[in-house]
Design brief:
The complex is a heterodimer of chains A (765) and B (286).
Chain A (H helix, E strand, L loop, with lengths): L2 H7 L12 H5 L15 E7 L5 E7 L1 H4 L4 E5 L24 E2 L5 E7 L2 H9 L2 E6 L6 H5 L12 E9 L2 H7 L2 E8 L12 E6 L5 E5 L4 H12 L6 E5 L15 H11 L3 E4 L2 H7 L6 E9 L5 E13 L5 H10 L9 E10 L13 H19 L3 H8 L19 H18 L7 E13 L9 E7 L5 E5 L8 H12 L7 E5 L16 H28 L6 E4 L2 E4 L6 E3 H11 L4 E6 L19 E13 L5 E11 L6 H20 L24 E7 L21 H13 L10 H10 L6 E4 L2
Helix pairs in contact in A: 7-8, 11-12, 11-18, 14-15, 15-16, 17-18
Chain B lengths: L5 E3 L4 H11 L3 E4 L5 H7 L6 E4 L9 E4 L2 E5 L4 H5 L2 H6 L1 H9 L3 H6 L2 H7 L7 H5 L4 E6 L2 E6 H4 E3 L2 E2 L6 E7 L7 E7 L10 E9 L5 E9 L6 E2 L1 H7 L6 H19 L5 H20 L2
Parallel strand pairs in B: 1-3, 2-3
Antiparallel strand pairs in B: 4-5, 5-10, 6-7, 6-10, 8-9, 11-12, 12-13, 13-14
Helix pairs in contact in B: 11-12
The chains are: A alpha+beta (765), B alpha+beta (286).
Amino acid sequence: MTDTNFSKSSSSIGLNISRVGAEEKLQGKALFANDVVLKDALCLKVLRSNLPHAVIQSIEVQKASTSPGCVAVFTSKDIPGRNRYGLINKDQPLLADTKVRFVGDPVALVAAVSEDAAHAAISRIKVEYQELAPIFDPEEALAPGAPLIHEKGNLLGKRLIKKGVPDLAFQKADVVVERKYQTTFVEHAYLEPDAGAAFVDQSGRITIYASTQNPHYDQADVAKLLGFPENMVRIIQTATGGGFGSKLDINTQGFLGLAAYLLKRPVKMTYSREEAFLCTSKRHPLKIVYKSAANKDGRLLAIDVKIIGDTGAYASYGLAVVTRSAVHATGPYEVPNVHIESVFAYTNNSIAGAMRGFGVPQIAFAHESQMDLLAQTLDISPLEIRSRNILRLGSTTATNQTLTASVGIGACIEAIAPHYEQIRKSIEPTKTKRLRGVGLGCMMYGIGNTGVQNPSTAQVELDSNGNVTLFSGAADIGQGSSTVLTQIAATELGMNPEKICLVAADTGMTTSAGATSASRQTYISGNAVLDAVSKLKEALMTEAATMLKTGRTSLILKNGKIENISNSSIFVTLEQVARKAELEGIPLKWQGFFDPDTTPLNPETGEGNPYATFAFAAQLAEIEVDILTGEVTVRKVVAAHDVGKAINPDSVRGQIYGGVAMGLGFALMEEFAPGKTVSLKDYHIPTCSDMPNVQAIVIEDPEPTGPYGAKGVGEPALIPTAPAILNAIADALGSRIYFLPANLEQVMKAIHSGASKPLKIKLMV
Amino acid sequence: MRIKFKYLRPHSLDECLAVLAAHGDESAILAGGTDLMISLRSGSRIPRYVLDVSRLAEIRSVEQHAELIKIGAILTYSELIAHPLIVKTFPALSAAMSCVGSLQIRNVGTLGGNIANSSPAADSIPPMMIHDAQVMIQRANSVRIEKLERLIVGAYSNTLEPDELITWIILKPAESVCKQTYRRIARRRSLSIARVNAAICGKLDASGLIADVKISVGSVAPAPLRIKKVEDSLIGLKPEPKFIQETGELIARHIVDLVGTRHSTEYKRPAIAGLVVKCLEDVFID
């Protein structure tokens, strides 16, 4: 950090202070879960189902148990608590009991003295299955008479959103466009495969070190699996190499907890890349039928959207995706008449769960394609049709939520408009074999969980030496929450952020901040930190006023001192205040709390205020298609994101660059085929040589309820990229792709299919 | 999965061939290891001996013999890409070697290893084929020289015997007036396997007609192909855009006829045509 910048303002908000933990990581000193060394730790391995759907008839473990170096083999019978876990629905067994539901379902857990011994033991377990008919398509899963994957049925959940009178609006519309879109499973492909280690201390408490984005949830679910009190399970997040949603699930924690608890010995578990691919959650593949109606001026009149999702064998965060994809189906546009139905089913595919955006990247592909199709039909520019329809102050969303502040989509579009026009002009009709195109992608994204309470808490403590310690349960998985929370606390206390000691994501030391998901930590945990720190500050100022015998309002907290505003030579140090407070028994540890102001969605109509604030973004992509080979080169992305306030602008830009990379992969190459895709050898994520020049533009339309006006950017960064790229491909080819990824095959097909043939267009102008 | 094997590093070619004579059928040859390590880790190969040939001084050089250039089979891609004679004489091969895997792979992977692995998508094979590549293969008491096209008989399949070692690759430089090119299509720019790759070398005569052309296409059949039938039919013709387009389509058709229609044909047919067109343009149109 630049001390000079800091001392001028004594605020670090908006400064690019260096990332908390960056030095340790650069020097290789940061401890990732696999780096945790516990003396004599046993190695854990899981035997997983090789069948997608089968009843377990018997599990023979005798030969494995007596295999050299094997210490124990556990099956579902050994689980002392309730053998069901899950982020929302508790439908997933830690070890399969009656049946297996996907290739990769855990069947038995081996603890052995070495990795080789564990592998040897695994190979000696014999499982007899009775195969059941598998289902790999969500529509088939919901058909009458389909084999049941779960006893309660194959329907995961359904969300309806109704507003206005869409039928009437479709009849009156000048133009109606209807298309079907499809996306595939996507793997998170975080750098660090899942890992953890655990031990039981003398008091019987289990401590689990884990690569996680959700320590307090982990604690609750592990405790339930073990039938053990929550306070006897401690989760400590280790340095985490990315998560993108998949480390919200307890991927290793349940196994670690079970083995440590039953054996009372230290244990360790590390997934190989192949295992992480096989059994951790993926992005939900969606089928979307999207019908839009507009008048001849391009004003949206109605949408009718049907979403069918595949959650795979278990729910994970699936229900959140059911709802979030529906709530965001309008995109950042005001649509007076809405009918949205989102239905997700269980199948025998890989588990689909949370992945950066919770269904919004998929639905954004559809709504942004629709906007371009309407624009094309009505001969309005893509930029203009968006500007005419965007949400503004006072607009209502699909759920009838009225937006009262921080609606920055207009500013985002304005920011990229000159770039768009310039590129547009530079593209001339050409007879070459490389066609250029430019496309837009816009989005809105509700910050925090949808229509449910999702509070965060924090504590701050001043010790008698004047040192400040901040306690937050928020897991920094690389996105930078630790840095942002420190900046917020430091600014409120008028301190250099480097002077604040942060204790984070350790259930033994911190209270819950909720999950690192839904782009919520800056907004929600930032507010909880602000609440705690404000209370401490208030106490200190009051005490200092007494000490300095002056009015509270004539004092300012700055650089570790509370001084008189007009005479800085009159001051007390924080240390002095702390000592005094301690003698007087005034508390110096304060608790903060924040829960965004939301209301649940009406189950029949979807009406409600599901989020307290929304992030907005507009991106453009300039691409080039080689019509001889089907290769797409993304030349440039300009990304404007309304984040409310950039607490740390470099972190915001970092999120945008990473999001664009992930969005580019989603657009062009990432495709996980359950049962086929093995590892990074056959799953392509973009490398730096695929990356375009990315110009990040930070828009700050302050959110009054946010800490210093901040909202969030983690997921929004990714969402507009794929729509922008797909719209650019359509612009280049005059032919549109309705399937993600737009891989070589899809692009070649589009090249040879000629200009787009509308599926159904009603033009009554 | 971890397996146990004995690691041997012979100090000379003779010693190496002697080990192969004695234990060839229970040995795996380690040159760069970029393919071997994967099969050892997966357990698809469980050799008793791993024979490290990577430092055999006898076959770590590039030599010029009259009309031919001999390349030591255990030279790495990175070494060859940096070798002035290779870069100057075989620009298509140099370009192809620059596309292999990642820098780390190129630092250890070898040309001989690429041949021995016999992947249908090997980057180096089409650009060697346009130089009528021959492969010198040695065993304890004999040497054979095999045409590259005959050595590789299918996907990951060749006529190498367990006691044999590829020692040299012999390439015939093109005439200096010839132009050479290598192109590939892949799912991403780097760290990827070619979906289609092709190497073409050719020259025009004084009146602008095709005087010589050699075409090799990979990733489209069990083994990379030389398309000699088409090559011969192009001699004496004028490389106009329409003709080049038709030639691309002709080669694509030829390959589809050869390998049959598969799931991938819908993409590969136009892609082969497109890639060949781009290569022909590189060689015959500036």
